[in-house]
Amino acid sequence: MVDLKAVSFVLLVLQNTLGTIVIKYSRATKYHGTTTVLLYELLKLVLCLVVVVVQKQGNLRHAVQSVRLEVLGDTQGYLKMVLLAALYSFQNNVQLLALDHVSAATYAIVYQLKIVTTAFFMVLFLKRSFHTVQWVAMVVLMVGVVVCSVGNSTPAPDKASTSAVGIFMVVGLAVNSGVAAAYFEKVLKTHKPADAILRNRVPDVDPMWKTNIQLASVSVLVACVGVVHTATTTRGFAFFDEYTKFTWGVVWLQACGGLIVSAVVRYSDNVVKNFGTAISLVLGCVLSNLLFDDQLSPMFFVGVTLVVLSVYVYGDSRLHGPAVHVKVEPRDLEGASSKDKGGGGGGGDLPQAVVLNQRAMYRVDEPPPIK
């Protein structure tokens, strides 16, 4: 049986590492970034729809019917995606403002707070429980990523000087990133349609593809606004101006990357995603050294050591003590006000509770993993 956790994690590391190199090559030309955003959101939407058709054994009519009923018919799900798209839009816009008030190095350092804020909001939104050792591992990971970033950067004059306002904005971005990541995981793992028919129906469309179709379709509209703004403020605007094969590589990698991140979050969680991103940062720096002759300082290798140490400490269950299981009812996650009726009920009426330990998430109607 294929270990989807491991496969999605490896793909995440490879995609991020390759993305670092391809983006660096693509910057040789000055293409319009807003156009690439629109293209990879469209591509992600198409890929999700193709997967749904494949899952229906190529039955296009059945696939369209399922998407219309379960995806387009889930109004509440779309409203959640609008909120998520708003968080992402806020992130992109404030990021540009923040870089006008802080140096690039300061931004890279302070923004790594997102590693801890993501875990904090996972506790808040998903009732996730982390052992003290795991919190320490996440802090070590954060420090390791900062040291790697600083150790791999070459001193360059920064146009922006660091200010208190800039620091505050970057901290806000780190918090916003944690909120968006944890909220996306909550929707992906716990969302149930408000419509009674959809709620009681056995889903035809996998939740991962459904969520991505909803998010991508909303993001396409937001991206269109960005393209229109670029077109109206740029003289002689051309959509595919200065596109190269590396630009198209960025589009494909970003589209696939969004789906890979969803898979990692679904089969693991956001903390595992952050560890994968950190590992890919290290690999990307090493590859940049080989391909572009970037210089790696001794500080970089100190950062690598911290990243590797944090991965070991977080992943070794022998350091965590006994597992802590938390039972989370849908009313806790969705904010419903209904009371419990007798601690769990019978088999057919068992609520869609989830059981979380420190390393995995699985439903109560499934046996826990054998150790």
From TrEMBL:
<feature type="transmembrane region" description="Helical">
    <location>
        <begin position="298"/>
        <end position="315"/>
    </location>
</feature>
<dbReference type="GO" id="GO:0000139">
    <property type="term" value="C:Golgi membrane"/>
</dbReference>
<feature type="transmembrane region" description="Helical">
    <location>
        <begin position="133"/>
        <end position="152"/>
    </location>
</feature>
<feature type="transmembrane region" description="Helical">
    <location>
        <begin position="218"/>
        <end position="240"/>
    </location>
</feature>
<feature type="transmembrane region" description="Helical">
    <location>
        <begin position="272"/>
        <end position="292"/>
    </location>
</feature>
<feature type="transmembrane region" description="Helical">
    <location>
        <begin position="78"/>
        <end position="98"/>
    </location>
</feature>
<feature type="transmembrane region" description="Helical">
    <location>
        <begin position="35"/>
        <end position="54"/>
    </location>
</feature>
<feature type="transmembrane region" description="Helical">
    <location>
        <begin position="164"/>
        <end position="184"/>
    </location>
</feature>
<feature type="transmembrane region" description="Helical">
    <location>
        <begin position="104"/>
        <end position="126"/>
    </location>
</feature>
<keyword id="KW-0472">Membrane</keyword>
<protein>
    <recommendedName>
        <fullName>UDP-galactose transporter</fullName>
    </recommendedName>
</protein>
<dbReference type="InterPro" id="IPR037185">
    <property type="entry name" value="EmrE-like"/>
</dbReference>
<feature type="region of interest" description="Disordered">
    <location>
        <begin position="334"/>
        <end position="353"/>
    </location>
</feature>
<dbReference type="GO" id="GO:0015165">
    <property type="term" value="F:pyrimidine nucleotide-sugar transmembrane transporter activity"/>
</dbReference>
<keyword id="KW-1133">Transmembrane helix</keyword>
<feature type="transmembrane region" description="Helical">
    <location>
        <begin position="246"/>
        <end position="265"/>
    </location>
</feature>
<dbReference type="Pfam" id="PF04142">
    <property type="entry name" value="Nuc_sug_transp"/>
</dbReference>
<dbReference type="InterPro" id="IPR007271">
    <property type="entry name" value="Nuc_sug_transpt"/>
</dbReference>
<keyword id="KW-0812">Transmembrane</keyword>
